[in-house]
Design goal:
Order of helices and strands: HHHHHHEEEHHHH
Structural class: mainly alpha
Helix content: over 70%
Shape: elongated
Number of helices: 10
Radius of gyration: 24 Å
């Protein structure tokens, strides 16, 4: 994960782009490789209604949920395809056109699509009065207290988008980009929320039936992906410490050689 390696690989990628060939890929180090696996595990867990299946007690607005689900995956694909376009790898004509217009256009388009997915979440309602399901439309009776239990779907799809964005980021790193330690740090949320939702799903699984199992499987996947990313942070810090120790040892050896040269 050195800057010189980034420059060499990036220059090779740009050369491959001009010649029309596929740019070479760098071999991923331990930390990025672990983070890629964590993103795939998180993606599988977050692709299920791991929050909403429990919060709505099985009263799922499936049309809205699948709409947001599809848009989030489209946003992730735009990020991935845009990363390939950036380094001259094989990608779609859409990403090529967006990248030619502006280097940030694929990421901008992905963000717009994801915002549309979140808007669907906030425009959808699953209303409860305590534990009583009131329907998918807000009650008009002013005396009825109610809450919309579908709002956590925005966090649900945010988790899925994080997994997709991380995978796209690592693809860019593989082709010559720089590795950002911010991505494993963002997995702290799933690492905490996943186990909590898994316990919540396990406590209600007898009442929810198949949807309870779906929520439990999803939350376990989210927890596993988050915890794997936390381990990636540990590996990253360990590697940084080793590199720092090597640099200090090299500096000490260089100073010692200089002292001996002066004495000679």
């Amino acid at each position: 994960m050195t800057d010189s390696n980034d420059a060499i690989t990036s220059s090779r990628g740009s050369g491959a782009s001009k010649s029309g060939g596929e740019p070479p890929k760098r071999e991923l180090e331990q930390a990025p490789l672990l983070l890629r696996k964590a993103s795939v595990v998180l993606m599988c867990g977050a692709a299920l209604p791991w929050m909403t299946a429990i919060m709505t007690k099985g009263h799922m607005p499936w049309a809205s949920w699948f709409g947001s689900w599809a848009l989030t995956f489209v946003a992730g694909w735009l990020l991935l395809d845009g990363a390939k376009a950036r380094f001259g790898a094989k990608c779609s004509g859409i990403s090529k056109a967006l990248f030619k217009a502006n280097a940030l256009a694929p990421a901008g388009a992905a963000l717009v699509v994801f915002v549309a997915a979140v808007v669907i979440c906030f425009s959808t309602g699953v209303y409860f009065n305590g534990s009583e399901f009131l329907g998918f439309v807000a009650p008009t009776d002013a005396d009825v207290a109610y809450s919309n239990e579908y709002l956590p779907a925005a966090l649900e799809f945010g988790t899925l988008f994080l997994a997709l964005a991380t995978f796209a980021h690592l693809t860019a790193y593989e082709y010559g980009g720089k590795f950002s330690p911010l991505f494993p740090l963002l997995f702290l949320g799933p690492a905490v929320a996943g186990p909590l939702k898994a316990l919540d799903a396990a406590s209600q699984i007898s009442d929810l039936g198949p949807l309870g199992f779906l929520g439990l499987i999803g939350s376990v996947g989210v927890a596993a992906g988050g915890i794997m990313a936390m381990y990636t942070m540990y590996v990253t810090m360990k590697e940084a410490k080793v590199q720092g120790d090597l640099k200090q040892a090299a500096a000490r050896e260089r100073k010692r050689a200089e002292r001996e040269a002066r004495r000679g």
